[in-house]
Amino acid sequence: MGRHYSFRVTDPQLIDQLEIFKRTGNLSKLINELLWNYFFGKVDLDTFSREMVEVRRLKEGMIELKNKIKEYFGKIEELEAKFQKLVKEEIDEKEKELISKLREEFKDILEDTNTFLKTAQTIGRNPKDLIASRLHKLALENQVSVEEVKKLLPEAVPEIENLLN
Questions:
Q1: Is the pLDDT of residue 141 over 70?
Q2: In the predicted model, what is the mean pLDDT of the chain?
Q3: What are the pLDDT digits (tens) for 36-47?
Q4: What is the separation of C-alpha 24 from the centre of its chain, rounded to a whole number of angstroms?
Q5: CB 127 within 8 A of CB 116
Q6: What is the DSSP code (8-state) at residue 123?
Q7: What is the number of other CB atoms lying within 10 angstroms of the CB of residue 155?
Q8: Domain locations in the chain as residue ranges
Q9: d(C-alpha 119, C-alpha 113), whole Å
């Protein structure tokens, strides 16, 4: 069985604290507990009041901590995004440089494919092997993996694909 009571609160500080408490706590439960303890409890009200103040202080500290954590996570995400952008820009710049070097390395083949093929035949080597040698050399000079160089080859020099097939 329950009964509704209404009462007026006139103290602005108390109103503010009640509004704050209502957002996260159960006001009816708090009032019922306070009234029960006031009328029937064996609680020293001075001790109880000090404990309530401590609980409120701890709760406010937790709310403040929660807000700080949110703020810090936001900053961390922002810094991670900046870092990823910088890393991507650096990778893109290195790839552009490597593409340019690949074009330079295979320039002679593109200008005169027939001469390259005749030279390979004359020295008894497969054109694929000669291209692979150049890729390895370029990878070593630029301190990157051969796979990375091979991955960029079609973008840098699409015509080479015909010689590799």
A1: yes
A2: 86
A3: 877 887 656 666
A4: 31
A5: yes
A6: T
A7: 12
A8: 44-164
A9: 10
